[in-house]
Amino acid sequence: MSALDAGSVIYRNYQISQEYSYLTGEDFGTILARFFGLFFVLFQSSIIWGNLIIIGVFSTATDTIHLSNSTLNSNESTCGVDFCPVASSQSNSSNSTTFSNLPDKSTLQILFGVYFVCTVVALIIIRLWLDPLSRYGEGCTEMKTRVTGKQLIFGTMKQMGNPYQIALIPFIFFSTFQTGFYNIDFTAAFITCAWGVQNIGQVMICYGICCVSSSLLFSRMIKYTGRLPVFSIIVATNVTAHVLMLNWSPDASQPIEFFLIAGMFGVSEGVMSPQVSAFAALLFDDNKQAAFNNLRLWQGLGYIAAYVNATLFCIEFKLYLLIAVALFSYLCYIILEICYARSLRQRDIVNDKN
Fold first, then answer.
1. 67: phi > 0 → left, psi -120 to 50 → alpha, else beta; which?
2. Nearest residue to 102 via CA among 64, 132, 72, 149
3. Model confidence pLDDT, tens digit, residues 266-311
4. Alpha-carbon distance 331 to 177, whole Å?
């Protein structure tokens, strides 16, 4: 998946975006942000279609899915910010929610079969209709500059010492760290615990719709406002969602609250992933391979941290940690924008003298 994602980044960045920028005469940075946004619109829409498939396939097994004797109502006091997987894993009390009579094996096989067919169709479409890189002269260049695996590793490690890369690392890490929290902890501590596992699909569809909408909207908005206002809005939305969760007692009789929080997470995710990637492509145009290796490395570490923390800390601590990481990441991003703007001005001065 990482290799496929990295390949798509290079293709969007250095082939499609540059070609379109050359043909239209528009600023490359603006085109880059737009194309990353459009890609993630399609990519993140898979959340919607995937959950619609799950709902459709599992609808035949709806009657066989139910909560066991630990009912939701008896657990509401330990849901939300009070949910603590550490305490639950160390005791066998009735505070832990368990499930029985999940969909049978044949239902799961049907679901996996549908996903497999979708994957095969996607590969066929890519093979038949995606233009090869050689059309843009990439093949000849790559043959001359091909590097070994050892050179690639050392190049990636060296790139990690780049001041711009260092300043961008916190935001890269946070973008996947908060996504992991949503996928693991929000669905377990808030949706499943207080409302029921059968409602996760509906909430995830809302999350996906907000992802797609924000990615499409803000990728075009950057053309008129620049990156800083957009990133400021997204960080404010993200922090607000975490603060609301700290003061929220989830209640199954008020489902709108689940969709509201999921929507806020979706808006945040729909902008952070594509625009951080677009900004990295702009910053490291002369060392794209090592830069995107670092990007995927720290994104992967963000997911790992979220999954490791899933059973180590309680929800309240995780929310405070996310707020702290978000604010620190935003501070580093502000410093990076200032330094990048200063370097552009210095480059313009040098060009004018020449």
1. beta
2. 64
3. 999 989 888 888 888 888 877 877 888 888 889 899 999 999 988 8
4. 17
